[in-house]
Amino acid sequence: MLNTVAWFEVATDDPQGAEKFYGELFGWSFAADAESAKGGTDYRLIGYPGAEGFRGGLFATGGAFPGHAVFTVAVADVAATCERAERAGGEVVFKLLDNPTGPDFGYIRDISGNLFGVFAPRSER
């Protein structure tokens, strides 16, 4: 469903440490995302006990982005959503459109400075 929280992401420059931490703490499992790897990105899918499939991702930042843990909202159009966020007083921190190895996505700060993500599922592009 669009305009709902559909994913979560943990970003870190220590992906092995994060896997160990969250694996031990919550019993989460991790699997490399082959599509992201094709584009040179270390992105790992997160599964957790009782859930079907993957519900989140672990982004190995390589120090290029600050660490964060965010919720991500599925939207029909990332560019349009980013424009609406700016008109509403938010700040677009990053956006990737026409992503060849995954969904279009962006990071936005709300009016209080909180970071969250938006993405367009491939079926919506």
UniProtKB/TrEMBL annotation:
Domain of life where this protein originates: Bacteria
Protein name: Glyoxalase
Cross-referenced InterPro entries: Anthracycline_SecMetBiosynth (IPR052164), Glyas_Bleomycin-R_OHBP_Dase (IPR029068), Glyas_Fos-R_dOase_dom (IPR004360), VOC_core (IPR037523)
Residue ranges of domain VOC in the record: 4-121
PANTHER family hit by this protein: GB|AAF24581.1, GLYOXALASE-RELATED
